[in-house]
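Protein 1 of 2
SEQ + STRUCT:
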Amino acid sequence: MKHLLAIVGFVFVVGCGSKGGGDKIISDYTGLKDRMCKCADKACAEKVTADAVEWMGTMEKEMKNTKPTKEQDEKFDKIDDEMKACAKKLGAEGL
């Protein structure tokens, strides 16, 4: 999970500058976080992780190489922290 989240963070940092790009990343990642937090077991967390990896590939192709706003970066960090906490509850933090 740490590796995945580091990559997602990288995608966010380099891929948010186009109009609405950062907001789209935040929205998509919020959806993944919500799914992770609804999981009741590690298998579910692993499925969400796999979906997140697939999503990352899509985001890398779609976004431009520009920097997010400070507000977008802070929102993303908060969502990321929440997702990590949910994964940890399921014993999936090492994914």
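Protein 2 of 2
SEQ + STRUCT:
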Amino acid sequence: MRARIGIADTGREIEVEVGSRDEIVKRLEVAYGDGVSFLWFQDAKGRDIGVPLERIAFVELVESPDKSVGFGR
């Protein structure tokens, strides 16, 4: 599953791979409840990305598409 995270006051979105819907929802809820400043993710290339919680505008969860090749479904 992928998470698309919008950053407030910018036109930029960050897209990262996350385990499951329940996992990312729980991480966000715990982070907001504990007063954490940054939430850290790792992208597909292995880069660490820190997102400041107070700057998150939205989180959109998207099912990862099957990695198929060709013109078939």
